[in-house]
Hints:
This protein has a five-stranded antiparallel sheet. It has three helices and five strands, in the order ααβββββα. It is rod-shaped and about 110 Å long. It has helices at 2-64, 70-76, 144-147; strands spanning 80-81, 86-91, 94-105, 108-119, 132-142. It is an alpha+beta fold.
Amino acid sequence: MQGSAQNENSTSNALLTELIIVILFFALTAVTALQLFVGANQKSQTNQSAQEAMLCATNWAEKLTGQTDPASLLLASGFAQDDSGLYSLREGEYMVQVSVTTEQKPAGVLMHASIVTQRSVEDAERPDQGLKIPMAIATYVADPEVAQ
């Protein structure tokens, strides 16, 4: 009788050990899958912010293209100018900073602009907090009198 009781105990112990191993395996798999989903979500948020910042910078680049007096356009659009000549505007969740230089040439005006878009909302949970999107443009506006 004792032999069959020991046999049942060893079978029960083996079954419990197998169950514990299987449960640990599934728990480890679940943790790994959860980490993958969290990482994918963070990358998705970063990519979405980069696309939104790029769209914002592109919009301002298009507005500045062909302007002979970009400073007046920026000031009329609500940009504030600091002492160094940098124009800044908070647009939604982003801070847009523009620096502009113009060169008068014999046949027109050459304008260089550097646009930097950065997320301005403070949110420590977001992985894209320090994301900056720079964009440089150069445009030449011909003088109509010289072109004739």
